[in-house]
Design a protein that fits this description.
The chain is of the alpha/beta class and about 240 residues long. It is about 40% helix and about 15% strand. The chain is built from ten helices and eight strands. The two termini are about 20 Å apart. About 45% of the residues are buried. Bound molecules: 2-phosphoglycolic acid. 2-phosphoglycolic acid binds near residues 223, 224 and 226.
Length: about 240
């Protein structure tokens, strides 16, 4: 199965989002593809209604590590589930870097997602400096093992490998670099969890490079920011070619 997820980040108004979801969901999804749209929290209900019956799945960009109570500004797993959310992006590098999320908090979020029947998409990835100093595998392994070591074999985890230096920069990892790390993630996850997990690549994926990225044996899809905000480019990503 190929997992193609659009991370809209903090973009679009509700009306833009409805329009975009309407345009995207007109396009058929190939049989082997799971297509997922992740709008901002405030747009989830409206986008769910537009996507209804289309086969496109709804994802959220974050989840609270607790169920309810005094957590001003947070959104719980139960709230997301009630809105028809199936997937949730957890530990995106923007959450790690801008909002200070660490591996311990990210683990709790993944556990909450699973408790509420949501599929977590766990993001891992190194910074440019970490790659330049040859630490990329250590960093990715640390982020991965912090979570998978606490999960059960049948937990439905997806991992997204997103090198921080390739996000929103137009600088894509080469398909070989992406493959090398995605294969490493699969191997490490299998060692700890006892099974292979699907691994997406993320970071400046666009119609022009999606085909060569998806051709790699250890890459099972993509987590896409910028190129998911236009219906025609997301259509090409879902098809897997420009
Ligand atoms: P990008 O973002 O496709 O705009 O590089 C990817 C992501 O942050 O998930």
């Amino acid at each position: 199965m190929i997992y193609m997820a659009g991370n809209w980040k903090m973009n679009t108004t509700v009306s833009d989002a409805k329009e975009l979801a309407k345009e995207i969901s007109k396009n058929p999804i190939p049989e082997n593809v799971e297509a997922i749209l992740c709008p901002p929290f405030t747009h989830l209900m409206a986008v769910r209604d537009v996507l209804s019956g289309s086969g496109y799945k709804l994802g959220a960009q974050n989840i609270c590590h607790e169920d309810n109570g005094a957590f001003t500004g947070e959104v719980s797993g139960e709230m997301l589930k009630e809105l028809g959310v199936d997937y949730v992006i957890i530990g995106h590098s923007e959450r790690r870097q801008i909002f200070g999320e660490d591996d311990a908090l990210i683990l709790k979020k993944v556990q909450k997602a699973l408790e509420h029947g949501l599929h977590p998409i766990l993001c891992v990835g190194e910074t440019e400096e970490e790659r330049d100093t040859g630490k990329e595998k250590d960093i990715v392994k640390e982020q991965l093992v912090a979570v998978v070591s606490k999960l059960k074999e049948d937990d439905p985890l997806i991992v997204a490998y997103e090198p921080v230096w390739a996000i929103g920069t137009g600088k894509t990892a080469t398909p070989e670099q992406a493959e090398e790390m995605c294969a490493f993630i699969k191997k490490e996850a299998k060692k700890t969890l006892g099974k292979e997990v699907p691994v997406q690549y993320g970071g400046s994926v666009k119609p022009e490079n999606v085909e060569e990225i998806l051709a790699k044996p250890s890459i099972d899809g993509a987590l896409v920011g910028g190129a998911s905000l236009k219906a025609d480019s997301f259509e090409k990503l879902v098809k897997g070619k420009a």
